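User: Structure please.
Assistant: Input sequence and predicted structure:
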Amino acid sequence: MAGISLTMENKNYFSGHVVADPGSKSDTAVINNTASQVSLPPAPPPPPEKLSNPPAIIKSVYITGYSAGSKKYLNYLSNLFRNTEINAVVVDVKGSGGYVSYASSAPDVKKYSLTDHEIPDIDTLVRFFHDQNIYVIGRIAVFEDPVYSKVKPNLAVYDKAKTTDLSNPVLWEDNNGLSWMDPASKDVWDYNISLAKDAFYNGFDEVNFDYVRFPTDGNRGNMGFPVYDSKNAKVEVIKSFFQYTRVNLSNEKISADLFGLTTVNPDDMGIGQVIESAMENFDYVCPMVYPSHYANGFIGFANPADHPYDVIKYSLDHALARENVLLEQETGKISEAAGSPASTDQVSEVPVLTPLGKLRPWLQDFNMGAVYTADMVSREIKATQDSLQNNFVGFMLWNPNNIYTEDAVLKQK
């Protein structure tokens, strides 16, 4: 998530499923000159199914792959589920560190060994959540990827000041020392979509795409792009990725994370993110409306982090208004098409209204800019409910340490 990161090194490595080799032509073996039937290992169980009755209102917490691989942490989560209204989790499939957290069957993950095995058995993990009726969202950090950039440097953002030979580029790094993929690369799009497809195969109910933008922090003047040629605006590049993702995951639930300022900024802030583009292509649009991430002076507050209710309600009010404008525009196009006379040799086709993605924000449950008590987190949730009202479909809590303020989300007695 932009501005907040957690890097934890896993010490445990696990092997994947063992599958019987179907290539043998004989089912018998001779041991000490005695023929005996070879006993093939049992086939692995099928992957878990998605939740048959997912919650209409998602109340989620974020967890890293490292946490998801810890039995002690999973026990903590079970207690959280019992005591609070939390009914969903966002699990890193690929975090901003670049490694895939489990033994994905995506071709490039297998080819280049891009997993760190933080989650030893993804099917067991998904079943663990589903058995408690917990909705499972897989998070994929898309274009910030210091691992894939090492195996595909020809598709990564390079440092123009240090690169003398484009066949051997020096990777550009942001202020955190992380490298990025070129957001215009269709090969990069396909790689991340392959991760999503594998997650869905393994029973994930939804996939959440993060870092769906051009890089920000760092010397942006030195960024070189092997694919992006500046002929199209950055906003069109990111919109094309959104559209491509929607087409390739047409029957799945998908969501996108955006900067909180996309709710109020009319332009793309130089990173390609415009909230309307996400609304048109995702089931859920997830602005990161963390009050600590707004500049001092935002809507008149010297320290926006001290005012979670006001900052979040203002942001979501504006996002909802922009979504309503989109709906009106689309409804107007349909009305115009329906009212236009058909030509003599062709029947005019009336377009179908495309559902727009529902707003489901990320909320702050970490101390930055202010100490975030249960009251502060509760005010964020109330602001979300008060703003969206009948359009309220939930929220997602972010804490990089994955420990959450239970008193803010206790079950109602």
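Residues 58-141+185-217+235-338+351-408 form a domain with the TIM Barrel fold (CATH 3.20.20.80).
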